[in-house]
Amino acid sequence: MMIFFITCLFITVNGQCPLVCSCDDHDKTANCGNQELDAVPENLPWFVQDLTLSENQLTRIPKNAFPSKNNLLMVNFRNNQLVDIADGAFADQKKLKTLTFSNNQLTRVPTNGISSAKQLKELFLDHNKIQMIRQKALYENSQLEWLHLAHNNISMIAGDAFSGLNQLRFLNLEGNQIKAIGARVLAHLSSCVILDLSSNLIKLIHEDAFKPLSAANTLKLDSNKLTDNSFPSNVFERSSKLEVLTLTNNSLAMIPPPEVLNGLKSLSTLSLSANQIVLVKTKGMTSISTLRRLHLDENRITILEPESFDGLKNLKELDLSNNKIKSINNHRFDDLVDLEKLDLAKNTISSVESASFTKLHNLKELDFSKNKIEELDPEIFLYNKKLHQLSLNNNHLKIPHVNWVKNSDHLSVQLDKNPWTCGCHMVVFLNSFLDGRHSATTVLNQIICDEPEELKGHPVNDIDEGHMHCWQEVDLLWDAAVFIWFLTLIYIMRKWRILQLCCCCFARRSKTT
Ligand SMILES: *[C@@H]1O[C@H](CO)[C@@H](O)[C@H](O)[C@H]1NC(C)=O
Ligand SMILES: *[C@@H]1O[C@H](CO)[C@@H](O)[C@H](O)[C@H]1NC(C)=O
């Protein structure tokens, strides 16, 4: 009887939700978040699989913090003050799948604390103070698929640090202090699909560094200290599955040369935005012909050499905005037969040659805004029949041409902030919109006249056509008719007068006789 009673009591105690938590036996959760806890609550109900201990004051997780009866799959310690996770802290939690230690004060990877969590798939250690990753730091957690180490203070990663992690698919090391990637730092990551190394101090990369990453799809190296010398030849030799390579916000002065890009057989996106690239060299990218998106915005490009984009027959998007390009010359884009989007905004382009875009039969969006273009050939877009969006705003254009807009279907044109001359060309251009002669659209009240003086500052749709200083053919014919009629009249009058004079003479003469 006594034994029975004690057992009952034990079961109820063990099955009750701690006062500071709220439990749900349907969802199998216990939420003990934001309770100013400084210790892990004891005696969690057996049904809890998902335990939240975030926003508390925990500093340490002791050995065997959770009794062996628990069935925990996920534990969340986000936003505590954890400095230490004791060896064997999760010794009995063999089913754990997700552990979250984000936003704590950990200075090392809790190798022995979590070594028994053999089923662990996701480990969050981001926003801590980890300084280094030792060899085989997570060797026992061989089922790990997602590892978050972003925003720590990691400056050292030992060779073979990720040994054992043959299932790892995602590794985030963003926002650390890593200066170099040694030959064996990324060893064993043969399943890794996404690797983020952005916002570190990386300057040196060993020629073998990326070779283990044979499954990698995305490699991010934005905001590092990379220069043209950082990439050894053939560094991407085994990166045949890499589709996305981002090198934004580094110190590259050149597009990486063919001997560096060599091996990138599936590359689809290359981002080189915000570097110091000055020149796009002839045939520099022929080895990455699979490329679909190329971002070269925010560089210092002044010159596009002939055949600079040769070989990029699959390119859909080319961003050259925010550079120092002065002119667009014929045939620079001739090989880009698939190009759909070309961004040339925010340059200093003043001249555009008339055969610049003749091969871009698939072009849909062209952005020329914020340049210094004074004139564009009337036939410049003759071959861009799919053009859908044309931005010519913020330029120095004076004269619009109907032919810019008449060739493509449902084109939307931005024309504001140009010093338009409101004369004959403007009348013809406007009438082409008003007549519905093509399907193009524009916002007429954004086209503001700069000349003639008396129309300065007026939007074109506010001005009566008669004030635009334009005599069209019909007007001219009418004027000519009036003029001829007038001449004839004078002639007749003069003849009549001669007749009259004759009559007079005759009359006078007959009188005298
Ligand atoms: C980061 O680590 C360095 C040593 O590598 C140390 O001097 C520095 O204080 C650490 N910074 C923080 C914020 O912990
Ligand atoms: C570019 O990188 C520097 C460090 O190299 C960083 O301070 C800055 O915030 C980054 N800029 C952007 C826009 O990411």
From TrEMBL:
Protein species of origin: Oikopleura dioica (Tunicate)
Signal peptide span: 1-15
InterPro entries xref list: Dev_Immune_Receptor (IPR050328), Leu-rich_rpt (IPR001611), Leu-rich_rpt_typical-subtyp (IPR003591), LRR_dom_sf (IPR032675)
SMART domains named in the record: LRR_SD22, LRR_TYP
PANTHER family, per the entry: FISH-LIPS, ISOFORM E, SLIT RELATED LEUCINE-RICH REPEAT NEURONAL PROTEIN
Annotated transmembrane regions: 476-493
Protein's name in the database: Oidioi.mRNA.OKI2018_I69.chr1.g337.t1.cds
Pfam families linked: LRR_1, LRR_8
Annotated keywords: Leucine-rich repeat, Membrane, Repeat, Signal, Transmembrane, Transmembrane helix
